[in-house]
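Supplementary Note 3. Input sequence used for the single-chain structure prediction.
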Amino acid sequence: MNLLVVSSSQRLPSESAKVAEYIVKTSQGYDEIFHLELCRYQLPFWNGEPLAKGEDWDEIELRLSKADALVLVTPEWGGVASPLLKNFLLMCDRQTTAHKPALLVSVSSGINGAYPIAELRMNSFKNNKLVAIPDHLIIRDVNNMLGELCSGEHDINLRSRVAYSLHMLKQYSQALSQIRMAHAAQAYPMEQEYAYGM
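The predicted structure, written as discrete structure tokens, is reproduced below.
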């Protein structure tokens, strides 16, 4: 099983990438774990039309195809998820992402971070058919969390919560693999008609 960790800050370096690297280091039970830092790729702006997505997208799509689960890490800027992540999710198609579980992670330097999770749950998975698992993580005061050295009791508790959420993501990945295999063997006869709702 393979895990794809996507960090979506538009800055280099970023706290989102730091959190993603912590997740890569602490995830267990996968054959391959890859950290995809979106700002390092040149992706076109999605406009709703079929488009040539470019060589960078070819590499990303290969990673998506191989992934059995995803972790999506976004900073909170102005109370919203990263535009890079939203664009990325719009570019994903259901052939590569359908019925794959995703753990949502929001990063904030302050005490906020809830809005990106709500935004992503509300309007980011309908057409690409990713499955956001019920658990999510909000990394508040990120400058002092998940560093090389543990910074105190809150950091200890947060690390434990990250481990639990990654464990649950693995369970969802294993369970949803049955749906992906069944779907690949025999899709619903009129599936295309219902791909985008009624």
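The mean pLDDT is 93. The helical segments are 15-26, 54-66, 83-91, 94-97, 114-123, 153-185.
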